[in-house]
Amino acid sequence: MSNNQDNLESKLSDAKATASGMLTKNSQKGKNPNTAVEVAKTGSAKDMMLWLLAIAALIGATLVNQYLPGYWQLANDVWVRIGIIVALAVFALICLALTNQGRAFKILLRDAAVELRRVTWPGKDETFQYTWQVIVVIGIVGLFIWLLDNFFNWFVGLFIG
């Protein structure tokens, strides 16, 4: 009886695993990819245009200070140039945020925030203990490297004279 029950339980668990695998495959067909890597790998013509706009804006921001005052009288004021540079940088960031890679970066930041909430941070005593352990190990390694340095200086001194 127990052998039959074990067989039934193993068949039931296999059926559940198969069903859950089929459900996840079917549910992902109709939805957009939800991991950062999947989102970042997708691309389109819109992404290419946004990347080109962002690159052009950043190149323009680097050239504003040197070339714009020669063509536009108002650009002789340093605050106008700073405003134009900031505006071009913000425009480039907005363009990059609208790409699939920008969406992937937002997903990555959201996932990182979730993982940070799961971290168990050490207490004051643990931090103090680990700090002293690190300081002692650094001292031992530093002493070892100092001894090696003195040995090699002495060894090379024998040959150089």
UniProtKB/TrEMBL annotation:
The answer to keyword Cell membrane applying to this record is yes
The regions listed as transmembrane in this protein's record are 50-72, 78-99, 130-148
Q: Where in the cell is it found?
A: Membrane
Q: Please, which domain of life does this record's source organism belong to? A: Bacteria
Q: Does the keyword Nuclease apply?
A: no
Q: What is its main location?
A: membrane
Describe the protein's quaternary organization and the partners it interacts with: Component of the Sec protein translocase complex. Heterotrimer consisting of SecY, SecE and SecG subunits. The heterotrimers can form oligomers, although 1 heterotrimer is thought to be able to translocate proteins. Interacts with the ribosome. Interacts with SecDF, and other proteins may be involved. Interacts with SecA.
Please report which protein family the annotation says this sequence is part of: Belongs to the SecE/SEC61-gamma family.
Q: What is this protein's name? A: Protein translocase subunit SecE
- The source organism is Psychrobacter coccoides
Report the gene name.
secE
